[in-house]
Specification:
By secondary structure, the chain is an alpha+beta fold. It contains nine helices and twelve strands. The strands form three sheets. It has a seven-stranded antiparallel β-sheet with strand order 5-7-4-3-2-1-6, covered by helices on one side.
């Protein structure tokens, strides 16, 4: 346990992110719970990136996007000794479980199609809000989506889905990049083909990743079974070549998704997963429009 300036007591780790990042749960003096992103090895450049991350959506928050609260803070261990080279960013605590854990319990497209549509729309709305603010997420994947929902037979609250971790996000206004210049923009398994070919991230590459996450939520499993994932020992270039080959084999054309999914939703996901960025839905705002006009 340790303290964070501002009167916060940090108690337990709850996750790990990119670039020497850990996430902890803590409380304030009133007992309210918060999440704290801690970055170790902090320097001036790291501080600047974290401050940019915290400020991205300050003026335009959204109920389905996790909110951060600047300024950054220092931490203190036993005896009030400052934690060296560590910075903390306070965020809302996202309750529930990762979307991947939810989908692992069964394909919502088969057994809960109505709930699938509501949850999917909330995720689409979150990404659409980023795009409306000219922000790319660049790391959309199930582990970056938290879902607070009791399960079949229960209502889905308007803020049940929370898009978390803007650590790889990028603002398109002035080209401000939150991440380090040498950071890989995304997780290879959820990268659009053009990103696997080292082209620049765009809103439509976010749309491709969004389509893969929606596909996984519907099917109850990743688009590539874990036993076929490139191993950690595989060189980056070879892993990307393998994934590009798998994308062409399994994501080209119309996809069979899940038995009871609405046809319109299957069509939207197909359009998100077009391999060529020119033929894909341009941004998440257009995906949201497809949901709302279905």
């Amino acid at each position: 346990m340790f303290d964070v300036e501002g009167g916060y007591r940090v108690s337990e780790p709850i996750g790990k992110g990119n670039q020497a990042v850990a996430v902890f749960k803590g409380t304030d003096a009133a007992g309210r719970e918060w999440a704290f992103k801690m970055v170790q090895g902090a320097n001036g450049e790291t501080r600047e990136r974290l401050e940019r991350e915290a400020s991205l959506l300050q003026e335009r928050p959204h109920p389905n996007v996790i909110r951060s609260y600047p300024p950054l803070a220092r931490g203190f261990g036993e005896g009030g000794k400052e934690l060296r080279d560590a910075l903390f960013l306070r965020m809302d605590l996202a309750n529930g479980r990762e979307l991947g854990e939810l989908s692992a319990h069964g394909a919502l497209g088969s057994n809960q199609p109505a709930s699938l549509v509501v949850l999917a729309r909330q995720l689409v709305a979150a990404v659409a809000h980023l795009h409306a603010c000219d922000v790319l997420h660049r790391d959309l994947k199930p582990s970056n989506v938290m879902v607070s929902w009791a399960g079949p037979g229960t209502a889905v609250e308007p803020d049940a889905v929370k898009l978390i971790d803007l650590g790889l996000a990028k603002s398109l206004q002035g080209g401000v990049d939150v991440t380090a210049t040498n950071a890989t923009p995304g997780t290879p398994l959820y990268m659009a083909p053009e990103l696997l070919e080292d082209r620049e991230a765009t809103k439509t590459s976010d749309v491709f990743a969004l389509g893969l996450v929606l596909l996984e939520l519907a099917r109850g499993a990743p688009w590539v079974p874990p036993e076929e994932w490139p191993s950690q020992s595989t060189k980056v270039e070879e892993a990307r070549r393998r994934l590009l080959k798998l994308q062409k084999e399994r994501l080209g054309g119309k996809l069979p998704i899940a038995g009871d999914m609405p046809n319109w939703l299957q069509g939207v996901v197909n359009r998100c997963l077009v391999l060529s960025p020119r033929g894909r839905i341009a941004d998440a705002e257009a995906v949201l429009e497809a949901f709302d006009t279905a």
